[in-house]
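Lesson 9: reading folded outputs for more than one chain in a single document. The general rule is that every protein is listed as its sequence immediately followed by its structure tokens, and records are never interleaved. Here is the first one.
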Amino acid sequence: PEDAARKSIERVKNLYKNIGVPGSLADIGIKKSSIPEFVAYLMTRKGDLDAGNPRECTEASLTEYMEMALG
């Protein structure tokens, strides 16, 4: 099952690449130095972020997620 899941993930990544979907924030020009500005904006929308989310969004968690999404 784990092997099948990994293959499926790779196929989706390849599909996205083939149709031109960016694979990371870096692919659309976002730089690590911009993350604090994005996080500050997202924190102004905290109510929207926390709605239906089982984990509270914090500056630290948003920064971590954005750094991971840089690729």
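And here is the second record, again sequence then tokens.
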Amino acid sequence: PEQHDNSAALNQLTAPMAGGLVSQRDFVVASMYEKEPATGIVWFTAASIDYPRKPETKEYVRSEERTDVIQ
């Protein structure tokens, strides 16, 4: 993964499931986290992105993800 301070861009690949009935999925995700010093609250978000260094291929199904967490 490419990482910069509190953010990263990474490529994830799932394994085939159900004996190959569900094909592999390919995710390209950017994530970022931040902790507020005064409250200790941690913010985390991740979302699928178009990323020139990881172009879509016909080998895998490109999937999308969106995650937001506040703790």
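What the second record shows: The first strand starts at residue 2 and ends at 4.
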